[in-house]
Amino acid sequence: RSLNWVLGHSRWVQAVFLATVALNVWLYISIPKTFFPEQDTGRLMGFIQADQSISFQAMRGKLEDFMKIVREDPDVENVTGFTGGSRTNSGSMFISLKPLSVRSDDAQKVIARLRARLAKEPGASLFLMAVQDIRVGGRQANASYQYTLLADDLAALREWEPKIRTALAALPELADVNSDQQDKGSEMDLVYDRETMARLGISVSDANNLLNNAFGQRQISTIYQPLNQYKVVMEVAPPYTQDVSSLDKMFIIN
Fold it and tell me: How many CA atoms are closer than 13 Å to the CA of 30, on its beta-carbon side?
């Protein structure tokens, strides 16, 4: 019976067919072109990238500045963050948004709004992304998508990385283009005069312990409280960590 109806209303069937094709084309054009649909879980993750020569104390100040800016957003409920780890010029931030029924904007609009304010902070950048239930990729990155460059020649990799990054940053579809290449940091090498140390009766371990006590944040005790534990570390006063001349004021008593 249905087949007879279709054959008897061929114009209607053709119109429905064309409308179905047009609807599918419109859906293909309008839907987001992502591996998985973008979610609004109410959580944001941020990664801080500062100057490669920044000290731990200065990096801690940058983290506090960024957290203050994020807290001031009306759609943000809670912010926590930390710095340190394998790189002194990096940090992480975890942001909880207010429930969607209370918020004025979704997660992506909150990120766009914060991006304009965070860009005014000198010396460091904060890259935000919405936390997804399913995350693609095996490496931690400062963005939702990552492109890995491999080369047999380190010089070629250092030459082409900024070129590719600049080209990607010029695309209007992309934002927060960044790189994890670290090759511009300042460093200082300390060379022991072992002959003089031996003549004065100073061992290498004594010199290493001196530097560790001054700059290594050596843990010397733990303060136990009912709800938490606090590590007590030994270090020189912050002003002495900013200038290499502070080494002239350190002595080993034998």
Answer: 6
Q: Which two tokens stand for residue 167?
A: 């080209």
Residue with tokens 């119109």: 15
Q: ∠221-226-228 over CA atoms, to 5°?
A: 55
> Where in the chain are the domains?
1-31, 43-134+141-146, 154-180, 194-238
Binning pLDDT at 50, 70 and 90, where does residue 25 land?
A: very high
Q: What pLDDT is attached to residue 70?
A: 93
- Place 151 in a pLDDT band, splitting at 50, 70 and 90: confident
Q: Are 66 and 126 in contact (CB under 8 A)?
A: yes
Contact 47, 131 (CB under 8 A): no
- Facing residues of 224 across strands? 229
The CATH class of 43-134+141-146 is: alpha beta
pLDDT classification of 85: cutoffs 50, 70, 90: low
3-state SS of 28-50 is HHHCCCCCCCCCCCCEEEEEEEE
DSSP string, 85-152: SS-TTEEEEEEEEPPTTT-SS-HHHHHHHHHHHHTTSTTEEEEEEE--SS---SS--SSSS------S
Query: Is 56's pLDDT higher than 90?
Result: no
pLDDT score of 137 more than 70: no
Paired tokens of 51: 């100057």
CA distances from 243 to 20, 179, 252 (A): 71, 29, 20
Please check whether residue 191 is in contact with residue 247, taking contact to mean a CB–CB distance below 8 angstroms. no
Q: What is the pTM of this model?
A: 0.62
